[in-house]
Structure prediction request, 505 residues.
Amino acid sequence: MTANKVRVRFAPSPTGPLHIGGVRTALYNYLFARKNGGEMILRIEDTDSQRFVPGAEAYIIEALEWLGIKFDEGVSYGGKYGPYRQSERKDIYRRYVDMLLDNDKAYIAFDTPAELEAKRKETPNFQYDASTRMQMRNSLTMPSEEVKAAIEAGTQYVVRFKIEPGEDVVVNDIIRGEVVINSSILDDKVLYKSADNLPTYHLANIVDDHLMEVTHVIRGEGWLPSAPLHVLLYRAFGWEETMPQFAHLPLLLKPDGKGKLSKRDGDRLGFPVFPLEWHDPKTGEISSGYREAGYLPEAVVNFLALLGWNPGDDRELLSMEELISLFDLHRCSKSGAKFDYEKGKWFNHQYIQQHSDREIAEMFLPLLHEKHHDCEIEKLTRIVGLVKSRISFVNELWEQTAFFFEAPTEYEEKSVRKRWDEGMGARMKELIEILRSLPTMESHAAEEVVLGWITQKGYHMGNVMNAFRLAVVGYCKGPHMFDITEILGREETIRRIEKAIERLG
Prediction:
């Protein structure tokens, strides 16, 4: 199948929000498809009707679009291989179930949940397979008339795949090489359930990948144990020659590297594990998302791309275009990738710095409005330019710039004790007169005059300048003092100093 045009699919289940591990899987599929001039399909695998969650499908699509992961066909995108939602393909799957039954590759089983449970208690490590199937209630042990009568009576049943023991099944994995599993350890997997007239993942996945002409299946390593079953299914249908190539991606591990990354890790350590904020319709619980936490999509993409893959050199900052040009599945790790959320913050900081001051100001403006302040975009751009290097997230800008919009109402106690001595009020009054006499509040010109005055008077430079900052800002940190006063303007600067004198003496 490699001679054909590369076609990959991302096939999530709408059972909740898209986990960040699923996002990485989608990203790797996208990078691979674009690198090879191929196509990417979005298929929704909603055969598990019991776990379906309203809103999950729309969430998945919105999350991937926010990240710039674009599909060529599929749910909401169209295409000639539809429908792309598995619940809408029931009739298609039924035909292939019948094909397996007709060719003695599958059989009908009537065992109830209670009967199966009893068997598990009776037989340690019970598995429904070649060694036990002839002890059960199925079409292999029941007369055909009885099977037919049971179906006509509406008795619920499942269709199981008939796996013959003693065969070494070879899975050729692009990342892991040759994986060999003996069929004797495999159970006769359920492929179809009459209760909801839906196939299980295994059957639907194989049929859809075949009919949609998928050439490469790139998915998480959690599906590696199922790969031998899928190889056997391709054989059973006579599709071995067009079977896609497999690549099973390493797990995303907890930040300490011990075990699979979970939502609980994010809750415990304070980082999102979902791309967008998720409102659970069943519990009402709200889970944080990378978008709402202030991450830029390009930072998330760059961060995720390097979790389990490397470009072949020590580069870290890579655009989507660069990732596409460099991506190679052979450079994926076999072992799990530790989820270093602090590194994710570092990436966001780097991408914040790459954006222009104007772009960041425009991102910041809605937050400013939430704080009931407005600001001309040109002025806000200047303010952002003074503090952008200090932030990793746009929402950190308020803490860094609040003093531009709100005069201090209290003053940092430690700095007051250290910098505001008995005679500081008088020196600040002198400073007010200096500021009033300035021909301009332009930063460089004002700095030259004020520093000259401090030197001429023989005042302590650090104490006076820190007291000046304390009066205007409320604490002794922030960008260059005269850049601040240039933006605030003469009258506001003087007004703040006067208030500090009134409060501090």
